[in-house]
């Protein structure tokens, strides 16, 4: 078995798709001749928790932990709610308090590349013994937080090893980067660090073709697209909701507000009494206040069902029994290559996917290729309305379904095989 050290900030009991990506790779590595060793913080600040994921960690997995100092711990004392929003990526440009604006400025300009930067030096020292005693020749860093890549950069300078940098999201080209109130110096610093990582890593992994194309303008190092995926061995039929449920699984943050969708649903409710009586909007996860306000504005308040954050296991159940699965991305050029992790479980759930996102969104091609639903731009109206009405008619006839073809390539096991071969 070839030993590989995985350096990651997010690990169970943390919740979210970033955790699942590396939990699943670690789960299947041994099937492809790799013995994983994991390095994580001992006392992390996780904005979301899902303790059910702990059960999926292999019992005999070697895990090294080391203490981390995080400024979020201090700021939490000042304003816990605002700190949790910012650390989880909930950045709203509207109605920000002076404290929020200050916290964002500090986050973007003093904590470069992020607030986990204070773990870099201690980790490099701690891992010296680990690398030597475990005879590790390959390390993998996964970000964000991108400070994990700076740990890899420092280890690469000191030791003869192969370094694979996994980018679950872009760095300087991610949507929220512009909201961090960066000075010109901070922008240049972020860009320089990104270039250093991309040009010193031996191999780079990204989750979308768009990010690959962007990074190819910066580096000539090997780049491979390995998406997120689903981890289910056999499909089980579920009893579908009696209501015409449109469910969004996961955080629906500020900026992801498909006004035209609420307008279409309002029109259909006014035009068809049976549609009005059947419609239910499920939100499983954090929902922005502006989104709920917009839904209320279009007279759909009585149809809202907000469940908040639930375990991954329970989220999967909602995916399987929902009539329609809603997928929404921010309408901007920077998000065309963002492929939400939930997409792959949506595919496996075999329920119609209703996507709303930017022009040339990479997701649209994937949904079309798998015949799993329809994706629209933010300006869509009549065509969006026609599709939803057709789906509603199929729902009334108990025939609402999709093919979800050609999805095996997105299984976590097959994706791990691809990664193992690349390493």
Automatic annotation (TrEMBL):
Signal peptide stretch: none
Cited Gene3D superfamilies: Glycogen Phosphorylase B (3.40.50.2000)
Recorded superkingdom: Bacteria
Domain Glycosyltransferase subfamily 4-like N-terminal residue range list: 107-231
Pfam family, one: Glyco_transf_4
Listed name of the protein: Glycosyltransferase family 4 protein
Organism, scientific name: Maribacter cobaltidurans
